[in-house]
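Minutes, project check-in
Item: structure for the 489-residue chain
Input as provided by the requester:
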Amino acid sequence: MSAGSRQLHTAIATAVIATLFAACAKDNGDSSLWTDPVVVAGNSEPFQPAIAISTSGQRVAIWAQRVESSQAPTEERVVIGTKPAVGSTPAEDIIEIRKVTRELTRFDLYAAHSVDDKGWSEPTLIQTGGDVHTRTNKRDPSGKLVSTENASFSVDTAPSLITASNGDVLAAWTQTNGSLTSVYAARFTAATASWSAASEIDGSTTLNASSPQSAFAGGNTPIVVFVRAASNGSGAHQILSTQLNNSAWSTPAVASSATCGLSALKICNASHPKLAANANGAVFAVWEQETTVLTSPTLPALPVINSALTNIYTARYEAGAWINTQKLSDGNGDAKRPAVTINASGKAWAAWEQDDDSLVTSDRITRDPQSIWAIPFTGASGTIATVAASKVKASELVDLTYITYSSVDLALDDAGTVTLVWQGQRVYQGLSDERASAWNNADTTRIWAARRAATETAWSTPVTINAFTTFDLNKSPLLDPNQRREMSA
């Protein structure tokens, strides 16, 4: 079986009985046939798996796993009543020493790799999570058993997983200790089939970090972008990155510094980064950034929001620094949730969803419908994007409904042909609950696609590609194996 076939037909899933399985296409060339699923992890409760595959066919899976334990019973002083005051003697609590047990639950991060065409290694513990939930069991003064739960911290359940040209794999995730959220990473070395120790890579012990996205620059150099709170106290967030040099992660470089942070009465808040890189060293990041303009107050009044708009930005990474920061969207409606891809020659495309202000004036619209936009840019130095973004699919009014589009992803081949997929959803307006429910069950969501060759100046007519009448709105299709959609909206 070819590496391409493996990449297309390797799959991993979590079974309903909380056991992790994997399967791959059979070697007889029939892509409709799959090997019998094999158990990768059967202990406790594994979930949220991710998988990466190298050009040689090496498969690496990673997942979170629930672990439960109980502490030895401890003694605790419990107030079971009050002795009333008598004369000059004050009232006094009646204390009883009772046994208390605490049940601990945490989520650890595990990984496994393929050892032959169908077999898998024993799971390897990548990172131990803290106590996610602590349940305390004790009896109240009446003797009734009472359980209380407190949340603490855990490993994130949706790590980013990417593969290098030499077969190495990088995993990046967020982890919280209850008061601070940090970004961690670990590297799987294919030559030794071993994992490095997990490292905290966001460079701060006081600022929260989240949303890691990873790529291998120049083929084998790991780079991770993430969101981190700005240090100026504005409440804004910035996009930063770090790369692994030998065995040490570099000091984080700021990607959104040109426009993010607190500037006079303008607050910029960056989020939802995506990253793309190729074997020749071209690296691009895209992100969404909300700009809030405050009205200058008359003291002692506080500033008020005058306007707020979200746009898509990009920057190019060179020699450890981000350059050529540029706004990609046109500012006519909030633009959100970008995706980016790049091919071997350095040609890149970005796509996003954008509010369609042209339909907001309709009395049938209670929230902004969204269109799909895309833009090409080049890997050469200087200005990144030299043409304006184009609208691939516009939101529409249909009878008493409108159609809104979101969750876009894209892939680019070496010839320069770009393909987009996205979700289209009909939203009813002005219907009774009964009519809306009946219509909603009939046909609410479709998956759309469109393509554009390098020599073309217009998009193909978008078409629906799924035959289903329902779709999980919390998930989206992924064409680029280096792009992992975030779990939260």
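Outcome recorded: The longest strand covers residues 92-113.
No further action items on this chain.
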